[in-house]
Amino acid sequence: MVYKKENMTTSVRSNLKGGEGDISFINFADCTDFKNCRLLSQMTIPVGGSIGEHTHINESEYYIITEGTGMAVDNGVEKAVEKGDLVVTAHGESHKLVNTGDIPMKVIAIIITY
Questions:
Q1: What is the tens place of the pLDDT at every residue in 80-109?
Q2: What is the pTM assigned to this prediction?
Q3: Which of 93, 91, 41 is nearest to 72 (CA)?
Q4: Is 100 exposed, middle or buried, given 0-12, 13-18 or 19+ CB atoms closer than 10 A?
Q5: Looking at the domain covering 5-61+79-113, what would its CATH class be?
Q6: Spatial contact of 90 and 55, defined as CB atoms under 8 Å apart
Q7: 20-67 per-position pLDDT tens digit
Q8: Strand order, beta sheet including 94-99
Q9: Closest Cα partner for 112 from 48, 35, 43?
Q10: Where along the chain do its domains lie?
């Protein structure tokens, strides 16, 4: 199956999970097409923006940083992240992501349910 860019939906969510700013989404596909998929998107986090700290239950989330730099809070521990890094948050774990750089941060986000 091929999903064409012109058919992908976009959305904006403000203060996502208690974070700061407007997070833009390009939704690559409707996850109802895939077993155990809840999210398959590119997120753009503006300079100074963030996704608030939250916990995943019965699912895992993967962030692949494709542009920019920032700080991830991984189960309470701050870690610098940059282009090419992967952040993995499994069942029962928490995370937060902040764009600390000077350009918008782009992140591929995938949530897989159990």
A1: 999 999 999 999 999 999 999 999 999 999
A2: 0.94
A3: 93
A4: middle
A5: mainly beta
A6: no
A7: 999 999 999 988 888 999 999 999 999 999 999 999 999 999 999 999
A8: 50-55, 94-99, 69-74, 77-82
A9: 35
A10: 5-61+79-113
